[in-house]
Structures are given as structure tokens and as C-alpha cells.
Amino acid sequence: MHSLIRTHATEFSLLGVIVVISAVLSFATANFFSLGNAFDLLNISSVNIIFAVGLLVVLIAGGIDISFAVAASVVQYGTAIALGWIGGGGWLSSFVIAASLGVLLGCVNALLIHRFRIISIVATIATFNIYFGLLMFFTRGVSIYDLPDWLTDRVILFEREMPDGTWIEITLPVLVMIICVVATWTLITRTTIGRQLFAFGDNPEGARRFGINIGSMQFIAFGWLGLRRFGINIGAMQFIAFGWLGLMAGIGGLVQAHYAQEVVPNALYGRELDVLAAVVLGGARLGGGKGTVLGCVLGVLLISITQNGLNLMGVSPFAFKMIIGAIILIAITLSNTRLERLLPFAGWKGTRR
């Protein structure tokens, strides 16, 4: 048990903080500690968790991306327009369109980073502004409300009537989120690609020198873009990581359109910092080579619970932004501080992952 806690210290710490905050909020507010509110939190957090597991892969590979939320907005609009062209489509066609657009936008970031040797945060700041500027220019900020019925109809997976007459429900976004979480966990923990992403993120130069045999991954990452000729090992890692985040952004954007029953150009604008804070808080290291899906999910839930509790208490949303900033600072500080320096008692020795 001690070994389990030691190797998963971040996850256990987050779980403990969530329990404490939930207990405090249950006394501070009347509606927080209820099954209905818990289900609402899960439904609302689904899109951010989808984004977060995609961002986790990029952080593990040693990169950073702040353009994914705007990319998801572009995917929303592009998918809605494409569905109109093909006469409405269905869930399968919409997922194919959204996923393809998302991967394409993610690969644009990887291309800039690898081909032109631009630092990832600089490249994604640029694409953040380019994507958002183009979206607002061509849409003129006009929302799309005329969506196909199958996209706007709520898909309820589980529902139950409560004694007070209200209904609680689990909707489609939760199922999609679970699939994305399991897929990401499988990618980074059960595949050779995942192990190589960790190795590359922890020491990209060492990974290059020792040689990572990823011929098949190069074909997947570059084949359809016609970039195989310059697809060296480092490039393949970057395309896979940013392409995966693009895939999650595309799926998350479509799920958000379904949940909101509309496409609003700036609806997802600003979520990137919330998600980044959650992923870093969950144990992902900005330097790469570290992070878990469980920690990532717990980080998102902690921030969602905090925001939900503050809303129920009537606290200004600007206060929540200050809290997010503090969380980012604390998480980055902890990610760069060895655990045994923080917990020196009882012979505790932190394990870096």
C-alpha cells in the first residue's frame, strides 16, 4: 500500500483535496452535495476532459499547445457547414469530418514546430490567433442554430426521477469522454508509441541518438500529408502528439455542439488555460516525460468542482480566474520540486515518473 501511494502520490493527493473541498462545499452550499449536481458536473466536465487527455499526450512528448480550444471552435463551424452540404449526415459522418479537421489543424502545429523549428508555445500562440481570427472573419461572429435534429436531440444514457420530482441524467458526452479517456490511456501505457512518447518527452536528444524505430508511425503521421520524405523520428513524435490532441479537439468540439445544441464561434474561447491548469495540476510536467490519464481527469474534476462550488456560493467568476492562475503557479512549482523536499518526514522518497 505504501508503495502504491508513493508511486501515485499526485493522484492520491488530488483525490484527498477533492474530498476535502467537496466536504467544505457541502456545508457551505445547500445544493452541492446532491446526486443531481454530481451528474451535472460530470456532463459539463466531459468536453474539458476530452481536451485534457489530448493535451496530456502533447505535454508528455515535451510540447505545449494553447490553440486546441480555438481549433475545436473551427471544427464545430466547419463540421456544421459540411453537414449542410451533404444534406444533414449522421453521427458517423460528423465524427469523421470533425476528427479529420481536428487532426489536420493539429498537424499544422506539428509542421510549424518540426519543419520551421519554432518553439511549440510560440507556434501555438500564432495558430491560436490565426484560427480565431479567420473564424471570426469568415463567420462575422454569427452563431449557427439550424443544426440537424440528430445532433441537437439529447441522447440520454441513464436517467432517474428524484423524490422532489427533478430528473438526473447521464448524457452522450459522458460516453464519448470515457471512450477518449480509455483510448488515450491505452495509447500512452499499452503501446510502443506511448513508451516512445515518454522517452522522447523526457530526453528528445537522447531518444534521437539512441534511435527510435518508428517507420510505421512515420507512415501514419506523414503519409497522407505527403511529408514522409522529411519525417525523421522527432518529427513523427511531434505529429503523433499534436495530431492526437487535434483529434480530441475535433471530437470535443462536436460533443460541445451537441451539448449546447448550437455552434457559437467564441463558445470555447478561453478554455485552454483551464484545461492546461488541470493537466499540469494532475501531474503532467511541462518539460515532458511525465503524466497520467487518472491524474489528468482528477485535475479537471478538481477545477470543475471548485468552479461549481464558487458559482453556488455566488462568488464572482473573476475570482475563479484568479484561482486558476494560482493553481497554475502552484502546479508548476510542485512539478519542478522533488516530493521528498516537500514531505521529508518518515523517510518518504518521492518517485519521479
Task: Write a structural description.
By secondary structure, the protein is mainly α. It has 16 helices and two strands. A two-stranded antiparallel ribbon has the order 1-2. A hairpin with a 5-residue loop joins β1 and β2. It is globular.
Count of DSSP helices? Answer: 16
Structural class: mainly alpha
| Average of pLDDT | 85
- In percent, how much strand structure appears in the residues? under 5%
Low-confidence stretches: 212-232, 342-353
Order of helices and strands: HHHHHHHEEHHHHHHHHH
Strand order of the largest sheet: 1-2
Strand count, sense and barrel status of the largest sheet are:
2 strands, antiparallel
* Rg (C-alpha, Å): 21 Å
Distance between the termini: 18 Å
Strand elements, count:
2
- The portion of residues assigned to helices is 55-70%
The dominant shape is globular
List the helices and strands and how they pair.
Elements: H1 2-7, H2 9-28, H3 35-60, H4 68-85, H5 91-115, H6 120-139, H7 149-152, E1 156-161, E2 167-171, H8 172-189, H9 192-202, H10 204-210, H11 215-222, H12 233-260, H13 271-281, H14 293-312, H15 317-335, H16 339-342
Antiparallel strand pairs: 1-2
Structure summarized in a few sentences:
The protein is mostly helical and 353 residues long. It has 16 helices and two strands.
Characteristics:
single chain; 353 residues; mainly alpha; two-stranded antiparallel ribbon; 2 strands
